[in-house]
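Structure in, sequence out. Go:
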């Protein structure tokens, strides 16, 4: 991306949209909203006329992605491009037999983590789902794990049982719970901490953690690296390496 080019990047997840506008490597605006709130994003609309491009990472349904694409065209005046997974980029090799089956957010997070850190990595993204991806020091994606995120774990217990009804609340501990609510909340976080520790130890890898609940995991694992903008930084890397394979225009 040239120093005078201004680009808006969107990370469209399962429950929210995270975005930022960049001029060169400098972030000039950023925000977060639910897809249903798209029409009211005045701070985005005010960027019209200043933007040269829009790039999107989307793991939400096709309808949500199309809403963002139409917003880019009609409200921002730029033609959007969607990132997609390829077999290899910047020395990172996808571990899936069919790269298109890997979530693009996981791919972009791995691209960003590997660009920032060296050696073997475990890249963790804690949102609605919790994803863990292992990368060798040579850049081979060894595969990964997908679990429910903290809120989905709580909701699954509430839906599947009559007695375990726990209201959503922040969780900061993994000590044994002394009531049912604490046992559920602490247990959910403890499960993610245990997997992160196990993978880091087994693969002798640095933990790199992003996503909305990243700070909760990092508080329990002081040696991990909190990387807040992994997916957005991965979008910037993909765009800098833009080709017909890793970026596509949606018509």
């Amino acid at each position: 991306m040239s120093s005078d080019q201004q680009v808006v990047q969107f990370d469209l997840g399962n429950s929210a949209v995270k975005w930022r506008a960049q001029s060169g490597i400098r972030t000039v605006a950023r925000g977060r909203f639910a897809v249903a709130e798209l029409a009211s994003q005045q701070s985005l609309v005010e960027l019209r006329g200043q933007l040269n491009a829009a790039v999107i990472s989307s793991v939400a349904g096709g309808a949500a992605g199309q809403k963002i694409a139409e917003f880019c065209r009609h409200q921002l005046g730029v033609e959007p491009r969607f990132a997609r997974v390829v077999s290899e980029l910047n020395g990172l090799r996808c571990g899936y037999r069919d790269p298109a089956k890997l979530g693009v957010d996981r791919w972009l997070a791995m691209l960003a983590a590997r660009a920032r850190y060296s050696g073997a990595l475990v890249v963790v993204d804690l949102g609605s789902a919790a994803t863990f991806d292992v990368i060798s020091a040579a850049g081979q994606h060894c595969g990964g794990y997908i679990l429910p995120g903290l809120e989905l774990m709580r909701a699954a217990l509430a839906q599947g049982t009559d007695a375990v009804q726990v209201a959503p609340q922040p969780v900061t501990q993994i000590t044994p719970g002394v009531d049912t609510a604490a046992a559920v909340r602490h247990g959910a976080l403890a499960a993610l901490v245990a997997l992160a520790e196990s993978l880091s130890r087994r693969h002798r890898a640095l933990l790199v953690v992003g996503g909305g609940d990243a700070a909760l995991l990092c508080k329990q694992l002081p040696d991990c690296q909190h990387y807040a903008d992994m997916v957005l930084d991965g979008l910037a890397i993909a765009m800098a390496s833009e080709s017909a394979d890793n970026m596509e225009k949606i018509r």
